[in-house]
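Practice problem: MFS transporter
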Amino acid sequence: MGVGALAPAGRGYRRYALVLLMLIYVFNMVDRQVVNILAESIKRDLALHDWQIGMMSGLSFAVLYTVLGIPIARYAERGDRPLIIAAAVALWSGFTALCGLAQSFVQLALIRVGVGIGESGCTPPALSLIADTAPKESRASAIAIYMLGAPIGSLLGVAFGGLVADAYGWRAAFMIVGLPGLLLAAAAAATLREPRRGAPKASLAAAETAPSLRDTLRELAGKRAYWRMVAGVTLQAFISYGALAFTASFFLRNYSAELAEASARFGLKSVGLLGLGLGLASGGTAIVGTLLGGRLADRFVARDPRAYAVIPAVGAIAALPFSLAVLNAPSMTIAFALLLAPGLLSAMWLGPSYASVQGLVRPESRATATAILLFIANLIGLGLGPLAVGLVSDLLHARAGFTEAAAIKWSLTGFALLALPCAWAFWSAGKTMREDLVS
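Answer key — C-alpha cells:
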C-alpha cells in the first residue's frame, strides 16, 4: 500500500490536483517544443546547420534533463513532491524566457541546458503523486489526463509560437511562452498537498526508509516487462522527437509555394499558418489518442494486464503507413489530412505505458522507476533523435546531392520505419506483464 493510500484525498481535490499537474505538463511541453516551429527562423538568423538545430532542440536539452532526473526522483521518494515540482516549473520557465536573449548557437544551446535541468523535476514526482492518490482501477486514465500535457503543449507550442514569431519575432515567442509558468509554480507550491504530510507515523516511517537506488535496480532487474516497455518508449521517443524537430522544416521546404498561397488567402505569414495547421492536425488528434489509450487500458487491463503492452504496439504499427504517406503526399492539403491518423494512433501509448510502470514496482519506487525510464528514453530519444535526423539530412544534402527539401524528407522517412521494432518491443512486454505486476 502506498503512502497516499493511508491519507486519502477527496474527489474534488484529486480532480483539481490532476488538472493543475496537467497544466504544468502543458507548459513543460510548450517550453520544450516551441523551438521546433521557430527552428527555420533561428537557423536563418544565427546561420545554423540542421545538425545544430537538432543539437539545440534535442541533445543540449536532454543531457542534464536525463541525468538529473534520477537524483531528483530519489529525493521525491522521501521529500515534498509539490515543492519539487514548483521549483522545477519556476526554473525551466525562467530559462525558456532567457532563450529569447541568445545571440549565438552556443548561448542558445547552454540556455536550453538550463531548461532541461528545470524540466527534469516534473514528471517523475508528478506521476508518483498521481499514482499515490488515484484509485488503481482508474490509474491509466488519470495518468493519460496528465499526459494530455504532451499533445496540448505541443499544439500550443507550434501554433501559438508560430503566430507570435510572425508578429514579434522568435525571441519574443520564447519570452511570452516562458513567463506564465511562474504563476503555475506559485499555484503548485501553495495548493498541492503532499500525502505524506498528513499520513500516520507508520506511513511517514515507510517514506523515510524508501528503498535505495541499488534496491530499486535489483527490483527492476527481474522485471522483463519493464525493460521491454522501456525499449518501446525509447524507440517511440526517438521517432517522435526526431520528427517533431523537423516536421515544420519539412513542410516549409517541400510545400513552400502552397504555403505562401494559403498564407495570402488567410492573411497570415507562413510560419504562423503552418504552426496553427500542425498544431490542430497532429496535436488535436493526439489529445484524442492519449485519452483513448488511457480509457482502453483501464477497460481491458482488468481482464488482461497484457493490454498495457498491446495498446501501444497496435498504435505504433497502425500509424506507420500514414506517417509514410504524409512524407510522400502530392500536396500540402493531403499531407495535413493524412497527418490526422498518426497524430491519434501514435499517442495511444502514453497512458498505458506509464501506468504499467507505476504497477510494476512498489509504491516507494515509482518515482525512481519512472526516472530511469525517462533517463534512457529521453537521452536516446530526445537527445539523439533530432540530432540524428539533422545529421542524416545534412549528409544527404552535402554528400549525396539531395536538395534540402528532399534530404529532410528521406531522413524522416528512414526514421519513421523504426516503428516496426518499436511495436515489437511493446508487444513483447506483454509476455511477462501479468507475472511482473505488483500493484
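Discussion: The CA atoms of residues 7 and 199 lie 5 Å apart. Students who identified this feature from the C-alpha cells alone can consider the problem solved.
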